[in-house]
Specification:
Blueprint (H helix, E strand, L loop, with lengths): L1 E4 L6 E4 L6 E4 L2 H7 L3 E7 L3 E4 L4 E5 L5 E5 L5 E5 L5 E5 L11 E5 L25
Parallel strand pairs: 3-10
Antiparallel strand pairs: 1-2, 2-5, 3-4, 4-9, 6-7, 7-8, 8-9
Length: about 130
Amino acid sequence: MHKGACLCGAVGFVVQGDLPEASACHCSTCRKTSGSHEMGVDIDKSALEISGSEHVTWYFSSETVRRGFCSICGSPMFFDPPGADWIGLHLGSFDGPTGTRVAKHIFVADKGDYYEICDGAPQYESVPGAD
């Protein structure tokens, strides 16, 4: 089990089970919503329990994806393609150790010029297998 919350604690969550490998997204939308690249894990929605959901504000950043933020402190937390059976959670929202590591970097062509990717994980121009 893994727990997490926004900065102010108004929105919390519990994930049942182990977390999968993480990805780091360098697209311009993730950079603008997180302040840098976004690192997250995609989990089955049935493994997630959200508390304080009345404080989550959803913003459609595209026609197919909405992002969830705490309406009080502004912490970005969720990446949700409505209708899918999975949801993305920002790793920075987790409390304590996650037991996962970044396994890939996606949308690296959009990465900011102010940092380098130096962890040795594979880098992709888009999402592997989405072509």
